[in-house]
Amino acid sequence: MTEPGSHWYDADAGPLVRPYAMTGGRTKPGPGNVRFDLIALVVVDHDPPADGPGASPLGPEHRALLTLCRAETQSVAELAADADLPVGVVRVLLGDLLEAGCVTVSRPVPPAQFPDERILREVIDGLRAL
User: What are 35-78's pLDDT values in tens digits?
Assistant: First the structure.
C-alpha cells in the first residue's frame, strides 16, 4: 500500500541507469589507472570500428562522448556537464576510449613549469620598446 502523495512518476523521472552499470562496476579508468584532470583536453583521434564482428565494445555513453568531442575539443569537466554524467563515470569511459585509441588527451601544464612572471614582464617590456 502506498501513502497518498508518494507516487513514482516514470515519465517524469526519465531514463535511469546507475553509474556502475555504465562503467561495468569500475571506478578507475583502464588498467593503467590513468588520471584525468578536470581541465585535461580531449580530442577525437579516430572513430571506433562499426558494429559487427571484431567491433569495439563501446556503449552508447562512449559514443555520446565521442560525438561531443568531435564537434570541438572539450575538457573533462565540460564533457561531464554536456553528457549529464558524473565526472567519475566520464573518467572511466574516457579511459576506455583512450585505450581503444579513439581519443587523445592533453594534460594541463603543471604550475611549476610556467615561466617566471618576471621573465614575462621583461619580454613584454622589450616588445613595447620596439
Answer: 788 888 898 887 665 554 455 578 888 888 999 988 888 999 99
- Backbone dihedral angles phi then psi of residue 3, each to the nearest 5 degrees: -80, 150
84: left (phi over 0), alpha (psi -120 to 50) or beta: left
Q: What is the pTM of this model?
A: 0.65
Are 64 and 55 within 8 A, CB to CB?
no
The three three-digit cell numbers of residue 55, written as one number = 567491433
